[in-house]
């Protein structure tokens, strides 16, 4: 059977328990279609880049799916009918990843909040850590008379 990754965004006013219920419902649709959900990840309530249907935040959930195309199509139909889902996307992948997604790993791998910025570590301010008032490179400007 083909492999899929499906991500959906649920409205911000839902509780985490309601989002888990939605996930279980979509899993049930896939199991009834002779498929299975290899794993699901709840990414949390996150701020959106732009408003979607008057929502500034959304609950993000990703499902790793091993199911026939007909089961995935039925699940997508159910997602489209659900008023609590504001966006969704399904992509076909060659293989399902056994390790956690980048969104889940993100919180634990970061040191000091700066991942991949080794050249800036320990510098502090943008001007190399010098106090704001002590900038020797510019001459003082004389007041106008």
Distinctive features:
alpha+beta; 4 strands; elongated; single chain; 32% strand; Alpha-Beta Plaits; four-stranded antiparallel sheet; 145 residues
List the helices and strands and how they pair.
Elements: E1 3-11, H1 16-32, E2 36-52, E3 55-66, H2 69-81, E4 85-93, H3 102-109
Helix pairs in contact: 1-2
How would you characterize the overall build of this protein?
This protein is of the alpha+beta class. The protein has a domain at 3-96: Alpha-Beta Plaits. The chain has helices spanning 16-32, 69-81, 102-109; strands at residues 3-11, 36-52, 55-66, 85-93. A four-stranded antiparallel beta sheet has the order 2-3-1-4, with helices on one face. A hairpin with a 2-residue loop joins strand 2 and strand 3. Helix 1 runs antiparallel to helix 2. Mean pLDDT is 83; it is low at 109-115.
The level 1 CATH classification of the domain at 3-96 is Alpha Beta
- Quickly count the helices: 3
Strand order of the largest sheet: 2-3-1-4
What's the SSE pattern? EHEEHEH
Helix share of residues? 25-40%
Average of pLDDT: 83
Largest sheet: 4 strands, antiparallel
Give the N-to-C terminal Cα separation.
82 Å
Beta-strand content estimate: 25-35%
| Radius of gyration, taken over Cα atoms and rounded to an integer in Å | 23 Å
- Give the beta-strand count: 4
Query: CATH topology of the domain at 3-96, what is it called?
Result: Alpha-Beta Plaits
State the CATH architecture of the domain at 3-96: 2-Layer Sandwich
Structural class: alpha+beta
Ranges where pLDDT stays below 50 over 5 or more residues in a row are: 109-115
CATH superfamily of the domain at 3-96: Ribosomal protein S6/Translation elongation factor EF1B
